[in-house]
Amino acid sequence: xxxxxNWFAFILLLRLIATVCSQVFPSLPADGNPKESSxxxxxxxxxxxxxxxxxxxxxxxxxxxxxxxxxxVASLLSSLANYSNLPTGSKEHEEAPQLxxxxxxxLPCIQNIFGVILFLRMTxxxxxxxxxxxxxxxxxxxxxxxxxxxxxxxxxxxxVVPAGGSYYMISRSxxxxxxxxxxxxxYLGTTFAGAMYILGCIEILLIYIVPQAAxxxxxxxxxxxxxxxLLNNMRVYGSLVLGLMALVVFVGVKYVNxxxxxxxxxxxxxILAVYAGVIKTAIDPPVFPVCILGNRTLLTKAYDVCAxxxxxxxxxxxxxxxxxxxxSDALNATCDEYFSNNNVTEIxxxxxxTSGILNLFGYYLEKGVILEKRGLAxxxxxxxPSPTSNRYVMSDITSFFTLLVGIYFPSVTGIxxxxxxxxxxxDAQKSIPIGTIAAISTTSIVYMSSVILFGAxxxxxxxxxxxGEGVNGNLVIGTLAWxxxxxxxxxxxFSTCGAGLQSxxxxxxxxxxxxxxxxxxxxxxxxxxxxxxxxxxxxLLTAGICEIGIIIASLDAVAPxxxxxxxxxxxxxxLACALQTLLRTPxxxxxxxxxxxxxxxxxMTLCLSLMFICSWHYAIIAMxxxxxxxxxxxxxxxxKEWGDGIRGISLSAARFALMRLEEGPPHxxxxxxxxxxxxxxxxxxxxxxxxxxxLTNQLKAGxxxxxxxxxxxxxxxxxxxxxxRADQSLRRLMETERVKGFSQVVISSNLRDGTSxxxxxxxxxxxxxxxxxxxxxxxWKHPDSHLRLKDFVEVVRETTIASLALLVPKNIASYPxxxxxxxxxxxxxxxxxHDGGMLMLLPFLLRQHKVxxxxxMRIFTVAQMDDNSIQMKKDLITFLYHLRIDAAVEVVEMVxxxxxxxxxxxxxxxxxxxxxxxxxxxxxxxERENSAxxxxxxxxxxxxxxxxxxxxxxxxxTDKGGAKDQxxxxxxxxxxxxxxxxxxxxxxxxxxxxxxxxLNEVILKKSKEAKLVLLNMPGPPKNRMGDENYMEFLEVxxxxxxxxxxxxxxxxxxxxxYS
Length: 1059
Description:
Elements: H1 2-24, H2 48-53, H3 73-81, H4 91-94, H5 101-113, H6 116-120, H7 122-156, H8 165-209, H9 223-251, H10 253-283, E1 289-293, E2 296-297, E3 309-311, E4 316-318, H11 320-325, H12 337-341, E5 344-348, H13 401-408, H14 417-420, H15 428-457, H16 460-463, H17 476-480, H18 485-517, H19 536-552, H20 555-583, H21 597-614, H22 616-636, H23 645-661, E6 675-678, H24 691-700, E7 706-713, H25 716-736, E8 742-748, H26 751-761, E9 771-774, H27 786-801, E10 805-810, E11 826-831, H28 838-846, E12 856-863, H29 869-882, E13 888-893, H30 900-919, H31 923-931, H32 987-1007, E14 1012-1016, H33 1027-1037, E15 1044-1048
Helix pairs in contact: 5-15, 7-13, 7-15, 7-20, 7-21, 8-9, 8-18, 8-19, 8-20, 8-22, 9-18, 9-19, 10-18, 13-20, 13-21, 18-19, 20-21, 20-22, 20-23, 21-22, 26-27, 30-32, 32-33
């Protein structure tokens, strides 16, 4: 007993050491990139000894044989409890504390949602769009993000979400193609968001804090010149700030995280200052006078006092405003007509919340239009104001509703901040839904209330004054704040700096996650970084793309760009949730229950609508970028299987389509060859004749069904590994030859049964093959190839019984590869008998491929002695015209007399057939022959009494009476060998040999130089004794031709003259 306890303690000690080692030295794959880990089956890396010891003393001996694949429940639960969803990354990230809902989700979302648009463009949007229009915009955008958050919450709570957030959710829900495309779009959106925040930071700095710091001076400049100087200043300072921020992020992300609380505090205090200012306006409105000439808003720098003249020592003297509009200081000077005809009025810029103003309706302006106050009488200027006048406050851009949507939407983005931190959360499945939805609710209330309060507190001309030029250059929202406008100015400056740093921190990590997944090959270099995992190369690329936004230099132009990318990302989040819900996949079991596919579909529709509302051309460009990335990943990216919803759609659509196909056979107009390619493999499970797949590709061009099948001789239990190798070999060859289809390998006891099984069970439901493609058996006359000969002829018989078309390429090694091109030549069709139109259709399909495109088509048909050759040619030309097939036509007449060479060749064929038959007789067959009566032979009769299959050697592949002429030549007789050279050829064999020889003569004469010859393939012999003769006839028929494609129709029309 003591010994058993010591042994058990020793086992526990080993397991403890193994657990500690696995935690201290985590395993990585060979490429050094972290992969998705799993605590489930086949994830244990323990040694065989440790695995064998897991069952000792645990009463589990019954399951010891399955220990490699099926862990014990206790081991599984232990692995789940210790499972970490953190990828191998930066050390700072791994050492981060586990955060709750407030600090991990709610506050980061608040910080990312509130940003530069709220402080710099919100008041202008209310002034331009009116309270009603602005409220509609805010409501649409907030509803979109709320619906997206609901969908995101369902996805995030459907299992463990590793660090990677939104990209991980989309890629694992919609597959690598959609995941990569949307991930790149989300990355570009985050990068351009960084550019937008930096531009907002510079705008605050140069316009409201230190205008004197401008490198390109704007004093004295008007119109386009002033605008160009401002943009150049934005470019210079923006590039400097971008470089500084990138340096901070490169030095260490921990500094950014430490400053995050400071930036968040700035945002919260700024918003509280605005609400405090609104409350103060009800009690004591602030004094911010606005000077109005007639109904036009004047620039603050254009006057010192809001009057034309002032009283000074009982004397009336002109004011600065007078000198601005008149040519001299004299009271009788010549002044601007509008100045002379209108009075100067001073109004209160912020009348307060109790003043009764509403600014309910919009006031959209053209670029260069003077801001005018509604309701004030004025005498219009007949000539109109000068477009370059620097006396009035003017609109800097043409405004319209859709522009406002594009500019505003970035202010509601940032809802993914919580899910992006999923690796740091204590309980991500609980924190992400609650924190995200609470943050969106809070920010939506703030935005909607701000629209109403701004419209109720601030005068319309001040709201429309984007840069505060009429209120002494103050930030408009700052004029409302309490205790000072500087609270908003400083707070918004630090807020934009912090948001820019967060974007430059998050975007490279998102790109690194995409790169490490390996789905976009050319991005793999950006998966590398510093020793601690920091994405250095990704940071450089992010800074470069961000510089593009800085060069644009206009906040109003950059905002719609990033709106496109964020909207596309949100659209696919909603799509992923809707698909998973509708498909009802077994793994779709989110803990968050307050979702519905209709809500997700509504959110997806809103996202798509807002994309085109914001900017239809930006929307098309963004979708084009996503489409290009999707197709690139589809063709060149790594193959990933993540159990995504798109695969679920494919399965559902495939099932629906298969059920529809079961309703009936396809119409002739829809018929196309659905090919089953029968190939053989060698001892190493490699395809023996790979060129047959080149022909398949040229026939199919990626359309319809293609199944490549082969047979492995053996038993399923013993040869399953060989079948897997053969399947991999088929897949590799199909990929090399670009054959789009399926591979199928069967294991059977012999070649014949395996081929028969492939012909019978290939396909599924209504999606089954209708054509068999099998190569001509080489060296079929050799005794060692007897089984392949029999198998080939049996395939011909089976296709005939099953009404399948048959294609047999002869000399397949001489067929062109997919890389070859025929610049000239002919495809010759020898139309002997009507086969449903296969001979007409196949050249047309071949000429669709670039290998055969330059070849011309010729059709030859054979006329009998009593046929009218001229009329046949006319009828054939008419038929081809109705078929819309361009081809040259020729009618060939054949001589009917039988030559001595034909007689001799038939005799040699029958002698060889008899010898081969005797060579393949088994001992049992000889015994049956010796015991059989030798007096006469019986034939198959409907009533029974069938003869032995070995009794009638000379009987050919017909049931005609002529076969009886040679019934006396039996292989079972001992004297058969003596009479071998005294026999006469069978008349039916003679006639068929004559046909084969004559046809071969005319084909060689007409088509010797053709690139490909297609001709009818005769039917198989009904009596298996004539297999060798049948093969000989085909050999004679095609002798001397380089490339021959024997075609046998399936018994139905495959081409029609009707539309």
